[in-house]
Amino acid sequence: MSIFTPTNQIRLTNVAIVRMKKGGKRFEIACYKNKVMSWRAGAEKDLDEVLQTDKVFMNVSKGQVAKKEDLSKAFGTDDVTEICKQILAKGELQVSDKERQTQLEQMFRDIATIVAEKCVNPETKRPYTVNLIERAMKDIHYSVKANKSTKQQALEVIRQLRESIQIQRAHMRLRFVVPAKEGKRIKEKLKSLIKVVESEDFDDQLEMVCLIDPGCYREIDELIRCETKGKGSVEVLSLKDVEEGDEKLE
Questions:
Q1: Residue 250: predicted pLDDT
Q2: Is 60 exceeded by the pLDDT of residue 247?
Q3: What does R_g of the chain's alpha carbons equal in angstroms?
Q4: Of 6, 83, 176, 210, which residue has the fewest beta carbons closer than 10 angstroms?
Q5: What distance in Å separates the CA atoms of residue 92 and residue 180, rounded to the nearest whole number?
Q6: What's the pLDDT at 14?
Q7: Which distant-in-sequence residues (6+ apart) come within 8 Å of 81 by Cβ?
Q8: Average pLDDT, the chain
Q9: What's the rounded Cα separation, in Å, for the pair 191 and 220?
Q10: Are 58 and 26 a contacting pair, CB within 8 Å?
């Protein structure tokens, strides 16, 4: 599809239109295909890589550029960059049924891939294959949301899958060292955040190797840094505590 914009005679090709209705009027922006979803997922940060032109249209196909007063009335600003960001975030991507289906299928597989990378069977500590996660997602009738990032949806899938299969986030293995005088107090504070203590050495300092939920890492790191005033240290020994071989779902 090629589009002419009579106002500036820019020929727009390979256009993805994002449309938003606001204040009783329709506003559209012309974007590059594949870039809209990258922007929404947070992978693309450069707006110029997403927009074909920094104009806001009433109708991209006819090249009708939106009037400044209409933009100000609807969006409360005439800052075109800010308006484009709003339309990108909340507008509806205009794609054909076939394109939408292809996009949703790819997102479904991407979500399954993230889940497979992050999770294990807690009993065997073996990872699940992507195909197996896809099958489990179909069994719970998971519906992909085109306007949410795959990472957000993967976390939601993990929560939902817990009701039908043995699955949990793979544990992260940490080693932390803190001064002896702070050791007992800090160990008590970390108790609820540690899943398994693998080794503990309490001499002139407390050194502990443990398994934690990856979501607790930042809290543990901040706690040790603040409580020891920077004298303690946290080291990631492995991002995932897993056994060799893939898990099979009977």
A1: 42
A2: no
A3: 25
A4: 6
A5: 58
A6: 67
A7: 47, 54
A8: 85
A9: 10
A10: yes
